[in-house]
Amino acid sequence: MDRKKELKQQYKEMKPDMGVFIVTSGFNDKCFIEAARDLKSRINSTEFKLRMGSHFNKELQREWQENDRSNFKIEVLERLEYDEDETKTDYSDELELLQIIWEEKMQQKGMKLYKK
Predict the structure, then answer these.
(1) How many domains does the chain fold into?
(2) pTM listed for this prediction
(3) Which residue, 24, 28, 22, 25, is CA-closest to 42?
(4) Predicted confidence (pLDDT) per residue in 53-86, tens digit
(5) Do residues 40 and 17 touch, judged by C-beta distance below 8 A?
(6) Dihedral through CA 92, CA 25, CA 111, CA 46, nearest 10?
(7) Which of 48, 83, 94, 100 is the most buried (most CB within 10 A)?
């Protein structure tokens, strides 16, 4: 029983990488940018949904299905560091701001965003 409690506590203390990732189309200069509390899980989820045809961004989904998967690249743009204050648990504002910054950066480079 103590082992179960210990594992549960370890899980609660885990700090997955959080930040912003991008799905880039290699054929039309378009990208999809998303912020996530758990980058690894969200990237895996996004790729799974695209493969299964159930991603919420219909434009990205359609182009994913019409073109070869190798025409798309998924990568982390930036990781957000955890605050030194251990009591802070809500990073939604910081992640939202980081996403906006990266969307603006990509648009300045001439990239178009997939409509949300």
Answers:
(1) 1
(2) 0.85
(3) 22
(4) 999 999 999 999 999 889 999 999 999 998 887 7
(5) yes
(6) -10
(7) 94
